[in-house]
Design goal:
It is a single chain. By secondary structure, the chain is an alpha+beta fold. The chain has three domains: 31-347, Alpha-Beta Barrel (7-stranded beta/alpha barrel); 474-559, no CATH class; 569-822, Golgi alpha-mannosidase II, domain 4 (Beta-galactosidase, Chain A, domain 5). Helix content is 28%, strand content 25%. It contains 18 helices and 36 strands. Strands 22, 23, 24, 25, 26, 28, 29, 31, 32 and 35 form a ten-stranded antiparallel beta sheet that branches. It has a six-stranded antiparallel beta sheet with strand order 21-20-27-34-33-30. Strand 23 (644-647) and strand 24 (651-659) form a beta hairpin. Helix 3 (62-82) crosses helix 4 and helix 13 packs antiparallel against helix 14. The longest helix has 33 residues, at 423-455.
Length: 850
């Protein structure tokens, strides 16, 4: 490419960067207006829903965003009350998009302000929407309960939210819709940002969304959440495009700068509206009403209300312009719309999968930490410890609230990709990542408190608790330094049986390595050994019943384990890596070739993120296929040596090092259970620094050709490709952590511990696939993705680990609930060592009790 062409492309990129944030203006720009637009044939009324789009970050540091949102609510309260004596058309209306902002405000407000707030709500012109935040699809069932109980119960009863709002995000799980319905909320407004995604069907439009229990949600699939402004204005008012609210060189609009209320301006806005409506009706819109949402134009996100809009509407009414124009709240507008069109709109069923979910893979460590936190808090509140005390319940709620904030859709600064090392970029992601790491730490604390409280009053022993509901089999590992003696085995007093303690190499902190033999290939610092002898003690726990605690007694007696049972038949490739394993009773193997493969998909060429967006927007399949083949660079890791194998009485372990040009190192480990059809794959790698766009996958394969798996999101199962709303994302799926394949030959369960995004059949990057793949048993787990051009993480790098579990049940065996089965596979029993010396009652009360 010549220098002239490169300069040309750079100039184009600069122009795009200035004009497009989320491609908003391109998405909502109307066709050119005629000289004398005609009155609309169908639309008789426009309802403007004015609100603040809430990003917890993006425009400002998350703490600043939340504090500004509190002030915006103050403005809305004052504006509603200040206009209460105006004519109805001149009264200000405003909808609080999230309960997060309302709860922040309520907790800080004094009695007089609370009274003013409730007075404004009582007018019907200040409305509170039901959802706490605009969420990604990575919430678990407990989080959906948290987000729908964000407000104190007594406040919820006073404000009675009647509609939910999900703006920006490209979907919402059925679990969220069911949680809304459970709270008496049966209306949902969606203001999708179509950048790198899109709405599932034409918009604006409405449909009934039918849930698995037959209840229905009335959904208004509206324009982009800022789109209402452009029904009346030709150009954006904002500059920047996303200055911080603290940047005094920018400011919010003042009266007379937006929605001017003089007659000439209102008539000009009327002319523009008629042109927009003519274009809309030409596409087939036939409803008598149209609901549009409006934000301020300072940044469009995290902006204050604009009270002068009420004067604009009042002038419209005085001039008797048509169609009618009204300021409305979201539930008020949707109530009216449902009454008009509820009998004529279509009904759809299925999961609403989200195009934007792939951005979560830009921070794989933080996602893994958040998922660990969810498992830990579930373990802490397990009935194995007894009833959950009030203080423990409060602690768990605090943890889930932070986890909801982590799963909120905003992952960082607007310039997080353009300026990945700017101090403000780091500041925003530091706060975002805090909402993963802090709940992980607090969940550990709560679990330890609950475990110690439950065990310390018991007799001396080493206690192992299974916090999951189903029986558990496997290795229980612990640092050998926790054992105060030369112990070699554990005795189960209930049965008289003993199990041996095995000691393995591991990390030895604050010790000088004896030589290179005490360092693994991961240990580049060469400071503390990570392959030092006898650092990990472990024992095999068999048949640990669900929600049970087993007591062992530590012993210095050596116990001989029986030789390994040769029941597993494993096929190896030319480098000794297992490509299939079969247990007695199985017609097909537990996994197939391709399991443990690593694949990178890079977007090659100049301006890769813009190229990604260009290909995503193509509608012609042939053109997209050509562009994909020209642009995507796919590369699998290759063996760097033969796999090693070691076995014991209970498992066989294969380990192999692979090589890939984007990784400093890569190892994979497959552990096979001798006594049951179960395997665990662990993949670790070190991603080297690069801000260029790329996607990493780890592949798994089960022998289920032609069988689509059942997965779940937020606790509600669905079958990809079959049980989805039309037009929703099929390139990748956000799942709770498991996929089950049910066939006449048995049931295969696959579980992912750390990464919730999967593609089926192939990596599917930019395929815009709609048809089910030929081989849905090939699972590509998306473990890294930095292709977004804003708002996510540009360059997560360093060591990362991902774990995957496989299990099989015969067709005639007792069927486990797949969610409970996966939870058990991924769980780790809690070990509590209780010495013979009793604990002080003061410590029990002041330290160990939650």
């Amino acid at each position: 490419m010549s220098a002239e062409w490169r300069t040309c492309f750079r100039r184009i990129g600069v122009c795009l960067g200035r004009l497009v944030v989320w491609s908003v203006l391109a998405a909502i720009a109307p066709p050119a207006l005629g000289e004398n637009p005609k009155a609309p044939e169908f639309v008789r009324r426009i309802d403007i829903v004015h609100m603040t789009h809430t990003d917890v970050g993006f425009t400002d540091h998350p703490l600043v965003c939340r504090r500004q949102q509190m002030r915006y609510l103050d403005i809305a309260i004052d504006a509603v009350l200040a206009t209460k004596d105006n004519s109805p058309e001149g009264q200000f209306c405003w909808t609080a998009e999230t309960t997060l902002a309302v709860d922040d405000w309520w907790q800080a407000a004094d009695a007089s302000r609370r009274e003013a707030f409730l007075e404004a709500v009582a007018t019907g012109r200040l409305e509170i929407a039901a959802l706490a935040m605009n969420q990604t699809p990575t919430l678990n069932p407990a989080q959906w309960q948290t987000t729908l109980h964000w407000l104190p119960d007594e406040l919820w009863e006073k404000v009675r939210p009647r509609a939910g709002v999900q703006n920006d995000v490209n979907g919402v799980p059925r679990a969220g819709a069911v949680a809304l319905l459970d709270r008496g909320v049966d209306k949902l407004l969606m203001g999708i940002n179509s950048t790198n995604g899109g709405p599932p069907m034409d918009r604006p439009s409405a449909f009934w969304w039918k849930m698995p229990d037959a209840r229905r949600m009335f959904v208004w699939l509206g324009d982009h959440y800022v789109g209402g402004f452009y029904y009346f204005h030709e150009d954006t008012w904002r500059r920047g495009p996303v200055p911080e609210s603290t940047d005094t060189r920018y400011r919010p609009a003042r009266p007379g700068e937006l929605f001017r209320s003089d007659e000439a301006s209102v008539r000009a806005a009327h002319t523009r509206l008629l042109g927009r409506l003519a274009s809309l009706e030409a596409t087939g819109y036939r409803h008598p009403s149209l609901v549009v949402s409006v934000t301020n134009e300072w940044r469009m996100d995290n902006d204050p209300p604009f009270p002068p809009i009420a004067d604009f509407v009042a002038t419209w009414k005085r001039l008797d312009l048509r169609p009618e124009l009204h300021l409305s709240t979201v539930a008020g507008a949707l109530d009216r719309l449902q009454g008009e069109i509820g009998e004529m709109i279509p009904e759809y069923e299925g999961e609403w999968t989200d195009w934007w979910a792939n951005g979560c893979a830009s921070g794989p460590r933080e996602v893994a930490a958040s998922r660990q936190a969810k498992r830990l808090v579930a373990a802490a509140t397990s009935p194995v410890w007894g009833p959950v005390e009030e203080q423990a319940r409060i602690a768990a709620d605090e943890i889930y609230r932070d986890l909801c904030l982590f799963d909120e859709h905003t992952w960082g600064a607007s310039d997080s990709i353009g300026q990945p090392h700017a101090i403000d970029t780091w500041a925003q992601y530091n706060e975002k990542s805090r909402t993963a790491y802090q709940p992980m730490a607090l969940a550990k604390l709560l679990l330890a408190q609950r475990a110690r409280t439950a065990v310390y009053d018991r007799q001396e022993g080493l206690y192992v608790a299974n916090t999951a509901r189903l029986p558990w089999n496997g290795w229980v590992a612990m640092p050998s330094s926790c054992l105060r003696g030369d112990f070699r085995s554990l005795e189960d007093p209930a049965t008289g049986k003993s199990v041996s303690l095995d000691f393995e190499h591991g990390y030895r902190p604050h010790a000088r390595p004896a030589g290179e033999h005490e360092l693994t290939l991961e240990n580049s610092s060469e400071t503390f050994p990570d392959h030092s002898p006898d650092q990990v003690a472990r024992f095999w726990a068999e048949g640990l019943e669900g929600h049970s605690i087993r007591r062992y007694v530590l012993s210095e007696k050596t116990v001989e384990e029986p030789p390994p049972a040769p029941s597993v038949k494993t096929t190896l490739d030319e480098h000794g890596w297992p490509i299939s394993s079969r247990w007695p009773g199985m017609e097909q193997p537990l996994f197939e070739a391709g399991t443990g493969d690593f694949l990178s998909v890079a977007i090659s060429g100049f301006g890769g993120r813009w190229v990604y967006a260009d290909i995503h927007s193509l509608t012609d399949p042939g053109e997209r296929s050509i562009r994909r083949s020209e642009t995507l660079k796919e590369e699998f890791a290759v063996p760097a040596g033969d796999a090693t194998c070691r076995q014991n009485a209970h498992t066989k372990v294969y380990t192999q090092t692979l090589a890939h040009p984007r990784l400093k190192w890569l190892t994979r480990r497959m552990e096979l259970w001798n006594g049951e059809p179960r395997a665990r794959l662990t993949v670790r790698f070190h991603r080297t620094e690069s801000e260029r766009p790329e996607i990493f996958f780890v592949s798994s394969a089960v022998p289920c050709p032609g069988t689509l798996p059942q997965v779940s999101n937020g606790g509600l199962p669905f079958v990809p490709f079959e049980d989805q709303l039309p037009g929703t994302c099929r390139e990748y799926f956000s799942i709770d952590g498991w996929a089950r394949y049910q066939t006449p030959a048995g049931r295969w369960l696959w579980a992912t511990r750390d990464a919730p995004l999967i593609a089926l059949g192939d990596h599917q990057v930019l395929a815009r696939t709609s048809a089910a793949p030929e081989n849905p048993g090939r699972i590509f787990t998306m473990v890294f993705n930095n292709v977004w051009f804003t708002n996510f993480v540009a360059d997560s790098h360093g060591a990362m680990e991902f774990q995957f579990d496989f299990a099989w049940q015969g067709a005639n065996e007792l069927q486990f609930d797949p969610a409970e089965h996966a939870e058990t596979l991924l769980s780790e029993p809690q070990v509590v060592i209780n010495p013979g010396v009793p604990e002080s009652p003061i410590f029990m009360e002041r330290l160990h009790r939650p």
